[in-house]
Amino acid sequence: LVDTVAQGDYDIGAAFDGDGDRNMIIGSKAFFVTPSDSLAVIAHYLEAIPYFQKNGVQGFARSMPTASAVDLVGKKLGKEVFEVPTGWKYFGNLMDAGRLCLCGEESFGTGSNHIREKDGIWAVLAWISVMQHTGKSIEDILKQHWSVYGRNYFTRYDYEECDLEPCNEMMASMEKNITAAEFVGKNYSSSGKSYKVKQADNFSYTDPVDKSVASKQGLRIVFDDGSRIVMRLSGTGSSGATVRLYIDSYEKENVLGQASVMLKPLIDIALEISELP
């Protein structure tokens, strides 16, 4: 798909998984849209989509590891934004309570309250509605969005088939370090970029509808500028554990940089803090 769109005369390319619930969006010449940016752009233009013209716009939500781009849209539009644990079930209660109309996760899942599941085909139709409404290409829509909100450069690293015991030790050691009283306020620097720790915890979520609590959902470090480092451990089967490292680097002004270059300082800091090999 990427090669075909890159070499041909196409305005949009879309890919789905086998049951159509996950989606990937690319623009002309294979301009890649991250799932976090896709969620934020759709949120910004919801009122251009007929379904929401009819049913109204409620709140937004994202999984905790997903870049916080949609948070900025919600703040500007005066809408509630919920940060929930990984797992689509956490969106359901919010939808049923009428507090959520759009949600997504960094693993290419996007959905709205027309159904209670991810819907990749709906997401592509939403993008086509945005393109029709603006008269702009996908690349120009993103660049316009970044000029207003800034840009969340995002990446994820998966360390698969790891021995569980040393992974548990690493996570416990990192949690102890980042939840120490002196960690908040600490400064980290790399490649000319500096970040000051604003908040650090093992993420816990209290459902605002039924008050149920999901604790120990992943280690989270939030910096003053909105950038974040997230670390999660998943899988305890015979094939080993998976360590997932998420990097969410926010830039207000430098929004047209090369993602790998822009992400490197925070990646290096994440490796320093986590002591990952």
Characteristics:
277 residues, alpha+beta, Alpha-D-Glucose-1,6-Bisphosphate, Chain A, domain 3, TATA-Binding Protein, 2 domains, six-stranded antiparallel β-sheet, four-stranded mixed β-sheet, 9 helices, 15 strands, A-D-PHexomutase_a/b/a-I/II/III, Phosphogluconate mutase, metal-binding, phosphoglucomutase activity
CATH architecture descriptor of the largest domain: 3-Layer(aba) Sandwich
CATH topology of the largest domain: Alpha-D-Glucose-1,6-Bisphosphate, Chain A, domain 3
Question: How far is it from the N-terminal to the C-terminal residue, by CA?
Answer: 34 Å
Number of strands: 15
Which CATH class of the largest domain is shown? Alpha Beta
SSE topology string: HEEEHHEHEHEEHHEHEEEEEEEH
Described by the principal axes of the CA atoms, the overall outline is: globular
**Count of separate DSSP helical elements:** 9
Descriptive report:
Residues 37-149 form the Alpha-D-phosphohexomutase alpha/beta/alpha domain. The chain has 277 residues and is α+β, with helices and mostly antiparallel strands. The protein folds into 2 domains: 2-149, Alpha-D-Glucose-1,6-Bisphosphate, subunit A, domain 3 (Alpha-D-Glucose-1,6-Bisphosphate, Chain A, domain 3, 3-Layer(aba) Sandwich), CATH 3.40.120.10; 151-274, TATA-Binding Protein, CATH 3.30.310. The protein has 9 helices and 15 strands. Strands 8-15-14-13-10-9 form a 6-stranded antiparallel beta sheet. It has a 4-stranded mixed beta sheet with strand order 5-4-6-7, with helices on both faces. Helix 2 (35-44) runs parallel beside helix 4 (69-77). The longest helix has 16 residues, at 259-274. The chain is globular, with a radius of gyration of 19 Å. It starts with a helix and ends with a helix.
